[in-house]
Amino acid sequence: MSSLGARNVTVSYGGDPVVRDVSLDIPQGELTMIIGPNGCGKSTLVKTLARIMKPDHGQVLLHERDIWSYRGRQAARHLALLPQNPVAPDGITVRGLVRRGRYPHHTLLRQWSPDDDAAIGFALERTGLGDLAEAQAGELSGGQRQRAWIAMVLAQQTDLLLLDEPTTFLDIAHQYDLLELCRELHREGKTIVAVLHDLNQAARFASHLIVMKDGRVVTEGPPPQVLTPELIAEVFGLACDIVPDPRTATPMVIPHAALSPPRA
Amino acid sequence: MSRPRGFLVLGRAVAVPVSRVPVTVGLVLIVLVLAACVATLSLGRLGIPLADLPGALSGGASGKAAFVLERLRGPRLVVGLGAGAALGLSGALFQTVTRNPLGSPDVIGLAGGAGAGAAAVALLLPGVVPVPLGALAGALLAIALVYVSTGTGFRNPGRLIVAGIGVSAIAVAFIQYVVYAVERDKATVLTAYVNGSLSARSWEHAATIGIVLLVVAPLAAAIAGRLGLAEMGDETAAMLGAEPGRTRTAAVGLSIVLSAGAVAVAGPIAFIALTAPQIARRLTRGTGPHLTLAALAGALLLVLADLAAQQLPLPGSLPVGIYTLALGGLYLGYLLVREWKKGTL
């Protein structure tokens, strides 16, 4: 059972396709992480799944209907995406930012709904930003700011949450902090998809892995089954051992050295 | 249903955000606009004395007062209010879309095109086409050139500005050519249309800009929310369902219609579209495009500049556009100094 999937999706930015003929289903209730080398099309795939990029060929299905047959706000009540580089407008407070996640639930004249306060309160509390609600978003630290953006997409109250490289600009402690939050949300029933760079983090937190290379899905499944030295060598060109993580027993990648120079 | 704080709620269908600071700023601006209107009507040799003003406005004007109110200053004042509001709103839409505090439809060739159109009809086809119509046609032609040469319509703000600067340069060159090559004597007539003027306005001018505002303002209000979301970046806006590409095209289109309307009734008045939204933004320090406040600030600026044009004892009667140009120059200088002090320039 899946509420979001791709059918033979090919996506390009005008030139060569970046995502090539990808078909997949995002497993319901799982914490899915997409990994792959730079330029493999993982961010583009997530943007296409989130109705930000339109596929050249194929369809993205949301609840078994073409996602482009939904109106923008209607799709945004089912699915939220945290982009890589959101911009906080000048002068906005954390609460104001989180409130913008309620936009899909409003109409032209009714820019407030009775559920707003509860949804905003829940999102602030869940991300530990209750005390900073009235602070200026521009004055937050990097980790706090990323939490504020997460709070905005939580306030959207969607079943599906997509995160495009959510840890990229965070230091290591805040990376784990954010991944823990994802895991908690997943346990509370959200279906989450995140693009991640760090294989060991993905192996530790994901319940489902999708591995991409050159615009295609190479393999997918639970991390212990997917992550093998052969796969890492094939996809990343990296010789490695896979050992159980001493804390969590999830697969851990111990690199030897690059097999060939990394591609640009 | 709990009562939300910070919202104006009318029944079940309507709830719009209302907060204290913008409402206060708006009320202050309205009071200032009214004061400027009173000053415009009552100052100077032909002014209607303050004591007679309420009577004159309620229909009891006669003789000189009626002439001043109905022919001389009344239409001029209303055109000033309307064109100022249109320019302020136009600039607010444009700056929000381009995320550029120096953005205004002037920059993308609208003013230059208007001047070139006016020059063309006034000096090449005298008496055949009314000069304001020429200005409007020139402005629209310039915008059409910009639209075509960006290759992506109004979607990409960077290309829009680059194409606009090019088209402006062509327009200015054309004006210079006409002025030098054709008829130097008549060039003085042109200053009004190259700079913008409010002298000798009629009620038709006032009705024209009034209709433009009545049509465009509700449309602008309808996209205000989506414009605010577009400030968070295209991907964020798109994923919230705010359709950033279409919103941008609509905002630039409305901005151009407003500016073109102002050009049609008052010529290409400089810098109001640039400064009014900045003033609105600075006074509130909040988020959002501040459309209403920018319109009020624009009306205030233009009426004040025209008051100066009418009452300052300078030789010759300068068109109001010269005053707004000087005002805008000072403002740009202030911005430059500020950026220089911050070390960002």
Range of helix content of chain A = 25-40%
How are the strands of the biggest sheet of chain B laid out side by side?
A: 1-2
Give the mean pLDDT of chain B: 82
Low-confidence stretches of chain A: none
The tally of helices of chain B reads 14
| Biggest sheet layout of chain B | 2 strands, antiparallel
Strand order of the largest sheet of chain A: 6-7-8-3-9-10
Quick one: overall form of chain B? globular
- As a percent range, the share of strand residues of chain B is under 5%
Radius of gyration of chain A, whole Å: 19 Å
Largest interface, per-chain counts? A-B, 39 and 30 residues
Secondary-structure-based class of chain A equals alpha/beta
Count the beta strands of chain B: 2
Give the averaged pLDDT of chain A, no decimals: 91
Oligomer: heterodimer
How does the helix and strand content of chain B classify structurally? mainly alpha
What is the H-and-E element order of chain A? EEEHEEHEHHHEHEHEEHHEE
